[in-house]
Design goal:
Layout: H1 2-30, E1 40-46, E2 50-52, E3 55-57, E4 61-68, H2 72-100, H3 114-130, H4 135-192, H5 202-217, E5 220-225, E6 229-234, E7 239-242, E8 245-246, E9 250-254, E10 257-262, E11 265-266, H6 268-274, H7 276-311, H8 337-340, H9 364-371, H10 383-423, H11 427-459
Antiparallel strand pairs: 1-4, 2-3, 5-6, 6-7, 7-8, 9-10, 10-11
Helix pairs in contact: 1-11, 2-5, 2-7, 2-10, 3-4, 3-9, 3-10, 4-5, 4-7, 5-7, 6-7, 7-10
Length: 468
């Protein structure tokens, strides 16, 4: 009787173990579409054998929970590549928008094309040389000047608007970062409250999901601590979350631009170089746009000051000698010249086509103005060449950013595939496991039925009992 009881206990353990293994597999299948879920496998453990008269008798196996299939090193590598890829994508998007600010208003007109505007403006002076007293040709000079000034100022306004938009986007991202670091601190505290030998399962999934999202927003470093704890810092070493505590990033305005702080430390620069979406946004906001806008300011300042100087050196239709006035507003400094560029002259007779002290039929000053087109008046370059180099440099930057982003995207995809092969749920594999555990369960059930029949026969001696 003792032997039969032992066998029944053994098979009961087998049934429980198979049922638990089936539950783990069923849970995997149920979460197959959950990207944050990590595949689990049952933990099989041999029961402690018993010894009778020096002989060892096995007690079967049991399932002591489940273990998530994750590789922390691989996940961290993926997080690192994601923050680089997200930074690259955000920067590329901003650069593409920036480049678009210099495109013509449509593909069928030259409106909005500053390069064409520059050519047309100086060409209007060339036309004026042929008939310096012509009212229509003088008006053509003012009209072309108005178009040039309008397109440069509207482009500068577009850049300033984009910079303000990036500033707002960066503030929004920082808000998301703060929410994620709070969540990370809370879930890490929960994980640490468990046994250090216990798999945290869904808590680990939540923490990894938070880390993955965070790495796409901001550049981070991860440091594993005791009892499965975690400290997360910026790439510059500023602590964002440690154990059960999180540290919020705050903001403040400096010269009209939002800066970000941890405590009293301004971390804006390190965030820009750290990676993540925030890094790309800040790089575009603080470097790409200001650099381009500075070049546009230099272009506007050079044209305005040089043209005004030439016009005030000649004689206009009213006979004013050296006091004809400015065609463009006179900038006091380079910065802001593009946004403020405008034509202030309203009377075409004030265009000084004649040379100083010469009659109104003279064209020498109009020639001098037209010649500005071929003179190195802006950073050692002609106006057209300076603008052409500005646009070409921007185009090369966009091309380089596109190539880099393509490479980083491919790297992220490759690492994600590796993670999925380990941690993702493969329904074909789970189907195979279900069949295996079901067959094992059925086999144990059959043995249990046989043992139960034998027990019944033993308890009913003399009564024939069928054994199937």
């Amino acid at each position: 009787m003792g032997t039969i009881n032992s066998a029944i206990n053994l098979i009961t353990e087998a049934l429980d173990a198979d049922q638990n293994a089936l539950n783990v597999t069923a849970n995997n299948v149920a979460n197959a579409s959950n990207e944050a879920y990590t595949r689990e496998v049952p933990n099989w453990s041999e029961n402690q054998p018993i010894y009778i008269n020096g002989a060892s008798y096995g007690q079967g196996a049991t399932v002591t929970g489940a273990t998530s299939q994750r590789d922390r090193v691989l996940n961290q590598r993926l997080d690192q590549q994601q923050q680089l890829g997200a930074s690259s994508s955000a920067l590329l998007t901003a650069l593409t928008t920036l480049e678009g600010s210099f495109a013509p208003a449509s593909s069928t007109t030259s409106t909005g094309n500053i390069g064409t505007d520059i050519t047309n403006f100086f060409a209007a002076y060339t036309q004026l040389e042929s008939s310096p007293t012509s009212g229509s040709l003088r008006q053509a000079v003012l009209s072309s000047a108005t178009i040039l000034a309008g397109d440069i100022s509207s482009t500068a306004a577009s850049l300033n608007e984009q910079q303000a938009s990036l500033d707002q986007s960066a503030t929004t991202v920082v808000g998301q970062v703060n929410e994620l670091t709070k969540s990370l601190a809370a879930v890490t505290q929960q994980i640490q409250s468990l046994s250090p030998n216990q798999d945290a399962g869904v808590l680990e999934d939540q923490r990894q999901s938070d880390l993955s999202q965070l790495s796409q927003l901001i550049g981070i470093n991860q440091i594993t601590t005791e009892q499965n704890g975690l400290t997360v810092t910026t790439t510059g070493g500023q602590v964002l979350a440690s154990q059960g505590s999180s540290f919020q990033i705050t903001s403040g305005t400096v010269d009209g631009v939002t800066h970000f702080y941890l405590g009293s430390t301004d971390i804006t620069t390190q965030l820009a170089s750290g990676g993540g979406q925030l890094g790309g946004l800040l790089t575009a906001r603080d470097q790409s746009i200001p650099t381009t806008l500075a070049s546009l300011d230099q272009l506007a300042y050079g044209i305005e000051t040089q043209v005004n100087t030439v016009n005030n050196a000649g004689t206009d239709m009213d006979g004013d000698n050296g006091n004809a006035g400015n065609i463009f507003n006179a900038p006091t400094q380079v910065a802001g010249s593009a946004a403020a560029m405008a034509v202030v002259m309203t009377d075409p007779n004030k265009i000084a086509a004649a040379g100083s002290g010469l009659g109104t039929g003279d064209d020498s000053n109009a020639v001098a103005a037209a010649n500005l087109a071929t003179q190195s008046i802006i950073d050692g370059q002609t106006p057209s060449n300076f603008y052409s180099n500005l646009v070409s440099t921007l185009g090369a930057t966009v091309s380089e950013a596109t190539t880099q982003n393509t490479a980083l995207t491919a790297s992220v995809t490759q690492l994600q595939t590796q993670v999925n092969s380990l941690s993702g749920v493969n329904l074909n594999d789970e189907a195979s496991n279900l069949e295996e555990f079901q067959r094992s369960y059925q086999a144990a059930s059959q043995v249990f039925t046989i043992l139960n029949t034998i027990m019944a026969s033993a308890m009913n001696l003399g009564v024939e009992t069928a054994v199937s």
